[in-house]
């Protein structure tokens, strides 16, 4: 799957750390190895996956949470080029290995729809990463699951809940005046064709409310919403919530 790859966990730097580093830079000029003291890095925090001790033999998610075994990073491009670890993007896919008991909405008990063993795509910044049996996992809420993927191509994604899956329109190659645009100057399109829709969100009684958007519709969506993917054929796709679709074009 070309768009669901792995990288290391992000590094979080506090404002106080940045201020300290800037002050040190101003004081010492160009920083050299050994210039800064250890005390100046006390508030510099690197957040890695939480490691589960070997004495624990299982993880049981609670409520509407699921445990996902993260898909391994793609080490090569589709063209066979070897990728360094720094060039591998954060994963958004994996296998569901355990599910919680569900949740209660009103008087209704709502089970988790996603079965164990399912291959899923999840929101880019969702969940908490844990390392269990030397394998990286993610604990996240069911609502953070974008959709199910039964093949290796993102174009076959089946969106869940209130999500809509869209094939993004091609970017304009030329300006209105006829000037040819380079890849870096092409404006990101916010128009596309709906190729799949989820079953809808749950109302206050736990009943599904079907989406008003249908497959085949050409839509205008919020420019910075959703999760972007690239298919094996090079086409661009985006999965977003129905509330991020602003209009239907005709």
TrEMBL record:
InterPro entries: Chaperonin_GroES (IPR020818), Chaperonin_GroES_sf (IPR037124), Chaprnonin_Cpn10_CS (IPR018369), Cpn20 (IPR017416), GroES-like_sf (IPR011032). Keywords: Chaperone. One of its GO terms (cellular component) is chloroplast. GO terms for molecular function: ATP binding; protein folding chaperone; protein-folding chaperone binding; transition metal ion binding; unfolded protein binding. Gene3D superfamilies: GroES chaperonin. PANTHER family: 10 KDA HEAT SHOCK PROTEIN (PTHR10772), 20 KDA CHAPERONIN, CHLOROPLASTIC (PTHR10772:SF63). HAMAP family: CH10. This is 20 kDa chaperonin, chloroplastic. It comes from Brassica carinata (Ethiopian mustard).
């Amino acid at each position: 799957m070309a768009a669901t790859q792995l990288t290391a966990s992000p590094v979080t730097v506090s404002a106080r750390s940045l201020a300290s580093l800037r002050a040190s830079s101003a004081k010492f000029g160009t920083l050299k190895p050994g210039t800064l003291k250890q005390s100046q890095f006390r508030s510099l925090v690197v957040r890695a996956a939480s490691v589960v001790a070997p004495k624990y033999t299982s993880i049981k998610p609670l409520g509407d949470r699921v445990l996902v075994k993260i898909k391994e990073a793609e080490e090569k491009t589709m063209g066979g080029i070897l990728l360094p670890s720094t060039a591998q993007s954060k994963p958004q896919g994996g296998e569901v290995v355990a599910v919680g008991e569900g949740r209660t909405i009103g008087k209704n008990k709502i089970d988790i729809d996603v079965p164990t063993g399912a291959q899923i795509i999840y929101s880019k910044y969702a969940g908490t990463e844990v390392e269990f049996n030397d394998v990286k996992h993610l604990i996240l809420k069911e609502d953070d699951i974008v959709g199910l993927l039964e093949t290796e191509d993102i174009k076959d994604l089946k969106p869940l809940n209130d999500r809509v899956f869209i094939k993004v329109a091609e970017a304009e190659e030329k300006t209105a005046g006829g000037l040819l645009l380079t890849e870096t100057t092409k404006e990101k399109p916010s128009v596309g064709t709906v190729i799949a829709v989820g079953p809808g969100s749950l109302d206050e009684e736990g009943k599904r409310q079907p989406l008003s958007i249908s497959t085949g519709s050409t839509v205008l969506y919020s420019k910075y919403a959703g999760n972007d993917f690239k298919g094996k054929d090079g086409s661009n796709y985006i999965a977003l919530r129905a509330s991020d679709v602003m209009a239907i074009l005709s």
